[in-house]
Amino acid sequence: MIALIIVLVLAFVTIFLSIVTVQQGTIAIITMFGKYRRVMYPGLNIKIPFLEIIYRRVSIQNRSIELDFQAITQDQANVYFKAMLLYSVFDNKEETLKNVAFKFVNDRDFMTALIRTIEGSIRGFVATKKQSEILSLRKEIVESVKDSIDHVLETWGYHLLDLQLNDITFDEAITKSMAQVVASSNLKAAAENEGQALLITKTKAAEAEGNAIKISAEAEKIAAALRGQGIALFRKEVAKGMSEAAQEMKQADLDSSFLLFSMWTEAIKNFAADGKGNVIFLDGSTDGMNKTLKQMMAMNVIDDADLKEKRK
């Protein structure tokens, strides 16, 4: 009875030790007598108790790590990087998992190699660039790192999913000088914009003033033409009135000199009424009046002669 119990206990222990549960997202590497034997995938698995040993459980999930390191540019400027590295096992094939399990003694050694490899790749790239170029080359740095270490990581059984450079800083003196350069550039741009705005304002003002002068000149031209036409029309009407008056006087058997005398006296009256304090010297004697009338009659005779000549 005791022997049966012992056998049952040993059988139960053997079965218990034979059953292995592998968690989702991990893979178990099995060795036998210190040598790789096989891979156990997630779920319930059976192994040979006491002979097959779980050497290592490998996570096939994505893993991340933060990096903080320094590099020196071609012009000897210190650049400080803060980065986030995202990586995972390349695939769940047997050869890949063997590389993951046996290339490094433990995860600590693998992380050391991974971090130093990435830092070295970034430092090598930065060493070929100048300090003023680094901030604009964030994407190029990431692509260069991926191109240079993807093959190495693949031999280790891993794959670099993403590398993010979250922060790139410089020494305080360089940062201060860069801020001064940016400030001076902004001041220069502001001055140029202000100058252009002032030029546009003055140009528009000059154009407006020129248009105003042009419009004023056109208006003055039209006004002068209208004044000239008015004066010409006035003179025409005066001549027409004088001609009609002369004809009526001839029909009434009156001397045309009477008309001239009337015009003369009317002119003197207008001089006195509209002079507004201005001094006008006139010869008011009888001889002066006779002289003026004779001149006006002579002009009338000349006008009659010209009229007769035109009628011929």
Outline the structure in words.
With 312 residues, the chain is of the alpha+beta class. It folds into 4 domains: 2-59, no CATH class; 63-170, 2-Layer Sandwich (Tetrahydropterin Synthase, Chain A); 183-244; 255-312, no CATH class. It contains 8 helices and 8 strands. It has helices spanning 2-18, 94-102, 107-126, 131-134, 138-156, 172-251, 256-274, 286-311, and strands at 19-22, 26-32, 35-40, 43-46, 52-59, 63-72, 78-89, 158-170. A 3-stranded antiparallel beta sheet has the order 3-2-5, with helices on one face. A hairpin with a 2-residue loop joins strand 2 (26-32) and strand 3. The longest helix is centred in the C-terminal third of the chain and has 80 residues, at 172-251. The N and C termini lie far apart (175 Å). The model has no long low-confidence stretch (mean pLDDT 80).
What share of residues are in beta strands?
A: 15-25%
Q: For the CA atoms, what is the radius of gyration?
A: 58 Å
Number of domains: 4
The backbone outline, from C-alpha atoms, is: rod-shaped
Query: Main sheet: which strands, in order across?
Result: 3-2-5
The low-confidence runs, each spanning 5 or more residues with pLDDT under 50, are: none
Topology as a string of helices (H) and strands (E) = HEEEEEEEHHHHEHHH
Number of strands: 8
Helix fraction, binned, reads: 55-70%
Q: Specify the structural class.
A: alpha+beta
Count of helical regions: 8
